[in-house]
């Protein structure tokens, strides 16, 4: 019988964070102290490593949520993550357009503007 | 050159609503008057009929959004819709678990309880 | 030079509450203890008695806000209040429809359903 | 029998957008692609062109909603719109003060600060 | 050098859940499957067992948050928890009143009504 | 029999504002006109001067609320207030970490980053 130790959840999470977010994620998490540790262990070590949905599907859900919640700093991170796990800019735009019937235009407009920023940075 | 007319957006939307939500959607929309007309024309005739994401992906985004927004009546409708377009109960559970890092446990707990209700109704 | 005293803010608020909400307001506020006192003194004695917008305009703003915030118990109270200060059911419906571009369909659908309930109670 | 075509909803919406927001609206919508098309067709071509409330009343509702939702970029646009359709700065201030009992001071403080910015730009 | 294992986080969390919420917590968490496991391991095994704030202070923060977020099912659980860790009904009322300047009356009114329910159940 | 007059609520509130927020509060409130008067009279003259919770406990509740509501300007003010009434930076960090189970990581990350800013300003 084996147990995942704290160490392995952290390591597992760090590897998953790199897979999902690339370097951007690590830069966001590093200065956060214990909170950053929980992002890595719980969000990435526990939740993102689960089976049952692909990373592509997890990022569709996440981009939609962060758009409607208006969490713009994290939306920027996860638009990069979505590109990183294989969504096209057009599919991310489509995900943001899908939020309109459920949360209206203002949060979607902010989302599209962040998407345009990210795409022009990536191509710039 | 052809134009989609108002009539065709409504008809297109009605067909898409049936495809996505089955009968439940029509029952929700029918008594809403002009608001129901816009749900059909705009949400289903304009947005849901777009290409670029599958219905399965649109429902993953929608279940995640409605969970974190705490819109429980509509979440119930869209959990049925998600089952209807081919997501398994396990994948819907997974989508709700994916919301925890972004919006915490309370809305996810409410989401899981609604999912359990819907599943037991479907099987009951 | 005159000062409004605490007593007069409470009395002023109580009169304004009756003008705006009729009996429903008093029933909601009475069991709330100190919180109810602040509703009367601050919300009605300070804010609602201000000039610059008509009661009709204040209720348009309030119905819109409570709809998008999803505060259903208070929305019910203020749909009654809106009818009470002279808005028609059609104008209240129109106010709720105006929320859709800003906050999406789910909160508007809940709002319309509460409006229908209130109207059928009033006419029942 | 006549149908409004897609084209006419867009044209109707564009004219209504200019009536409500002046140039600011067009600048916000132009770079948004399909999302901007829906803002024009649905928000302005369908919703804002409805009868039943005056533009003045629609902007009172909209300023109140955007204040409590904390959507600051769009609040700035709609404070300009409110001035444009005939509300005075004092009436907009009054609308923002009306939000306090329903959503507290922080969003109202942000709203008043944006109003002050807009007024000083207009007069600057 | 020692590691907390997964097992010990779960056990630690279960003991903390009992300390905070009494039986009510366990009843809420038990039917939730993997989500319930994360409530126990992460919310109670990781967060609630931290030093730096007393349980009393954590429940003051939690009652305030759940009130303003409008999460009524969980607020009911945590009003019980707050009583359980030593807050008086008057202190919980005071915590809810403290939310008014930050989120307005509607969520506070809902909070006070839940508090009154819980107190009458406890004394009933 | 004595009445608190409007004047005394304002004076009481102004003294309490200085006790809680130091100079920062006054700078925020001064340019707000009537809204600023209500912040002083109602938030500080009525609510903050109540007994039943210590200022330390009121700021724990307030930091938690403003974090989960994402009201960043006011969170900055109240992190200063929390330091001012005797909370340590570590206790404020702990309060922000306590929000994660209830509202997720994005608002907590924003909160921690504001805390780090405030602490480096205070020490800078």
TrEMBL record, chains A, B, C, D, E, F:
It comes from the Bacteria. Pfam families: CMD (PF02627). InterPro entries: 4CMD/NDH-1_regulator, AhpD-like, CMD-like. SUPFAM superfamilies: AhpD-like. Residues 34-117 form the Carboxymuconolactone decarboxylase-like domain. Signal peptide: none annotated. This is Carboxymuconolactone decarboxylase family protein. It comes from Alicyclobacillus dauci.
């Amino acid at each position: 019988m084996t147990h995942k130790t704290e160490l392995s959840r952290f390591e597992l999470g760090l590897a998953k964070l790199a897979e999902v977010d690339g370097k951007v994620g690590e830069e966001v998490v590093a200065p956060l102290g214990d909170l950053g540790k929980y992002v890595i262990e719980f969000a990435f070590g526990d939740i993102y490593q689960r089976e049952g949905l692909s990373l592509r599907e997890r990022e569709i859900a996440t981009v939609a949520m962060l758009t409607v919640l208006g969490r713009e700093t994290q939306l920027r991170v996860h638009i990069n993550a979505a590109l990183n796990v294989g969504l096209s800019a057009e599919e991310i735009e489509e995900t943001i357009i899908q939020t309109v019937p459920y949360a209206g235009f203002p949060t979607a407009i902010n989302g599209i503007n962040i998407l345009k920023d990210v795409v022009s940075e990536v191509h710039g």
